Amino acid sequence: NAGVTQTPKFRVLKTGQSMTLLCAQDMNHEYMYWYRQDPGMGLRLIHYSVGEGTTAKGEVPDGYNVSRLKKQNFLLGLESAAPSQTSVYFCASNPIPTLRVGAAFFGQGTRLTVV
Amino acid sequence: DAKTTQPPSMDCAEGRAANLPCNHSTISGNEYVYWYRQIHSQGPQYIIHGLKNNETNEMASLIITEDRKSSTLILPHATLRDTAVYYCIVTRVEYGNKLVFGAGTILRVKS
Questions:
Q1: Do B43 and A109 count as a contact with CB atoms less than 8 A apart?
Q2: Which of A48, A52, B11, B99 is the most exposed place for a label (fewest CB within 10 A)?
Q3: Average pLDDT, chain A
Q4: d(CA A7, CA A88)
């Protein structure tokens, strides 16, 4: 049982390059999220999904696109990377929450540097 | 989603209880209170959550005031490994349970 797995763990991009970050969860969770965390700051929500085939914008969606074609995978794309997108990216998944269930599980992060 | 207010930092002696406060005065009736922590640069870790009653699990206790406008996370016997940033989050289920993180409280446990 791997939980939430993010690929890759580290990446250096040149300005203007594109890439896709992959998040995979094996817990059959409905909800999935992408966050970014800049140095000394809390996490900010980029996009999220409440189920297969659905996506929605979070606090800071500009410059990113996402897809949830399969329930277990949530992809985050950068079409034209900018230095301002240098950050640590965290993926999370969450079952439909009730009082007794509702913990979000986070991946270990992807450290992206755009030069 | 309701906004939360936490002190920026706190210190606690090892072996003592750590009490981390959180204000959420605009919380709605269907919003839950969640606590997460982030150790160094790892992914956040779930601690506990509740709606209106006090909750306890193997990691911590959550005390929610009767008017639900504030809560306290209690780590009963803090250890050095509990040094982390602690986030108090309020969220509604029907919004996909999205977690909006503030700056949190840096808890430093000292020997």
A1: yes
A2: B11
A3: 92
A4: 12
